[in-house]
């Protein structure tokens, strides 16, 4: 059974990721991707772009990471994007108050509790500083805004913030983006890029960091008209953990289809259901272990007030299953449960975002929705007698007239009475209904301005990269020696194949190694050439990087009368087969091609296999 | 002749780029890439990665954008990364003092002048506020640090900065990166990502912005051993504008080969020369117009003190040449000179960066260089008689002993005298040479620890994207109508081909359009399907986006007895040819394939051409 520390140690050793600025002691919450990690992350982002931008026909944009304060006043981040902070009176260390409660009591989701209750719980449970054990009872709990603040321009400048989500860079440009979409709903806009949260106490290594990458899709829909192509994914099986199962003591996650879950109302929005189905297939494609994966519905207390329905995709980490368990298919073996971490959020956000930006910016964030045929509608209107209003209300007369029109639209029946009341600047005025000249007109309308609703799948790229690496982590024994390998999907692996010349003092052998390398590269594969250290060491290196195939060029292959051969070794099985040089590039390309179902078995059946003894752990 | 405003207007209209946060009035210096711009930028980054990471065998990493203060104390950015600021006493607007001088006098490179001289020049020329015309004489000029500052963690936190260059994220991780390179020089590390400069007054649209993307390559070399493969690029022709030509009144840029320029010492470093050659071919590949391109050497005053030689790649913008001039090959036509903007810097940075980080962090930033054979070397050493030093120097005795060892290594001859002098804590002590027990030992060394030198090509991605778009901007007249198009290289274009069904009420025609779209996508092309508006309007849209080929599906093509045909239109010539549906995907794929030299002429020769009247502007 692999421990999370083993994965993190391998990640550091093999250039996947490591804490940044180590020479200066490091800064919690900031990680650097080494060459292999950057390659896996790039592969993951490409796979995301392929599925959620290109194949969905969406537009991808790239917006700045620093945004002005006005954006976050509108979005609500300036006021509400807070965590609860409690500072130790002894050592001065800051802690998340809700985490202290969750870690030391049976209370879950302490984040949604009011501050006063959190302070009360700290007192009640006599919670102490995890660093120095000083009592925290009586210490004030405060809201701490998680945005990184900076200043734009010289002097005192204007306040700016590192965006806490890529989404705002899309919402705020809606007025222009809708033009690129030729003003037709539905349309989707994606963005992949950095986002920032100034976490109070980053922990869990790369899982809770201060700078991370998001891949977000904002789908703008007409809620009355637009339906997702649900039929495309209705048969996709998903593991769901709905709110009621979470609230029930004996409740648990269960497997069903997207279609059934939407029909039965377990998933409240067909758009959210559609994206769960699309995403489910995508997680499988990139190598998330579906035995350690679920969709968890937000509990009522977790839901943002504007969100009608929200589900998180969660993966289980910290309880990596061994190769033995996976290959025997025996799921009965007891194991420790790991941590469930959110890797994607799926939210039906209604018109909240666009309405807020419209309200705060004064610009139009609507789309003109043309009717199939012009509609004749009744419209209540007034035509106030200004010769009466003027003398009566003086400078307020105009405002009173406007208020009458507003009233007519909102409550036309009010004008059935002899007098109506309107409010101007907090003062109530009474006006004779006759003076208003109320009437109902018939008007022809070609369409209406509507504020689109937003459906958002928001992917945490780093957490998915971590999950994919941890879920690929395996150990076994080959020819009596323990080894560790990453069973990464070829689409995710940093390198497709590695070429090893066995010795470095044989020109014919080195030429052959170059020839094989060139052939593989010409077939479009990424190839690492490694001539350093023993062959065993080179295999170990590539196994730990997750390279699917290794090609060794040795003297056996170039002696004798037959054609020159090399050995091709498959990562997961560690089996080795002798393959003629002329065939090797085509064979490996076919094995890597997801559309070609050729298996290593077939290659082994038609070529000489070298015996290897593999013992799964 | 295209004006820069036309390019910027087209960029906004067609979704290349536009000022961000427009709904809130915008913030100077921040741009958003719309879908077409993001695609061009992504293509450019892929082409860079292909050439400078993959083909060079370098490692790519991804480091955080927020870094702690200690990094920038070491790098020198905290102290020296300043611009000169003068604030208007009337309107309060901030200006770059050096720009005011350059704009209003004949002085160039005012940036390198000391502040007192800049203040004097403002007085002397009676320079005024460009915003309100108030006098600036007598106003203080101040250094303004260009890094965006933020605070990491809760409370007062620790200071952090948005990185002003991606390079520091590489330098600071050198101790780990060298392990991934198996401790062997030379090796290169690349990074593509955001960088930030809090410009005092951003101007020139997307040319001088506050958030931008860099693509940097740091090559770590042993300056005594490592040679670049100069032969690969020695015959590449480059336009050079060396320092002496810039300083000579009649001097000008001239064309030579990389090999000659290195041989003649015009380019001072063969590594810099090598990268100029590699980059030259890359700029051509991505579509920079080589008539509006040069390599300009830094003047002695511009050079950083640690840089031995530094060249900028510069492109000329703001003077787009017309299609007429480009197609007639007539370069005699007079034209206005545009602005030369730096798009890449090539610097030999010596061991400056690694030495500084070693000094400030106390960590090792060296590589152990193994000798081919162990060397026997003489090493001067002392073995001071502490029984004498102790009573004489008390608590300082240890420090005096250390100072004696340092002196022995630095100046062994000093011990020939009867007495030597050493300094401890600013105090000079005299010691009898005998007490030092000086000797020279023979020791065997297997190698030495060396601090690698750095050669850095640093690309400004956004400026290259802008250059590629502006240099591709063309106007002409097709069938009597003016049109604008972007003659983008297919590798850069956002879309490979567009498919237009002529009418929307003919099922057979729509099915055929779907078939063609699927065929093109199956051939690996990115395809836009556009059924909105007149055909003329759709052509205009795709021309302005720079889509190389448009395929129109009309009734003519499906009537009659022969096979179904569609028209294929080439962007630059606007010529149209009828091609059978069964051939269209292969033909367009061949036309787009850079390794296939098939031309549209050949297609036209073997198929029916529809007459088009094209008049270049």
Kindly summarize this structure in a few lines.
With 617 residues, chain A is of the alpha+beta class. Chain A folds into 3 domains: 4-81 and 146-353 and 456-460, BirA Bifunctional Protein, domain 2; 367-448, Signal recognition particle alu RNA binding heterodimer, srp9/1 (2-Layer Sandwich); 495-616, Anticodon-binding domain (Rossmann fold), CATH 3.40.50.
Explain the overall architecture:
The structure is a homodimer of 617-residue chains. The first copy, chain A, has 617 residues and is α+β, with helices and mostly antiparallel strands. In chain A, the strands form 8 sheets. The first copy, chain A, has a 9-stranded mixed sheet with strand order 3-10-11-21-16-15-14-12-13. In chain A, a hairpin with a 5-residue loop joins strand 8 (149-152) and strand 9. Chain A is elongated and about 115 Å long. The interface between A and B is large, with 72 and 72 residues. Chains A, B: Residues 6-490 form the Aminoacyl-transfer RNA synthetases class-II family profile domain. Chains A, B: GO terms for molecular function: ATP binding; glycine-tRNA ligase activity. Chains A, B: Belongs to the class-II aminoacyl-tRNA synthetase family. Chains A, B: Its EC number is 6.1.1.14.
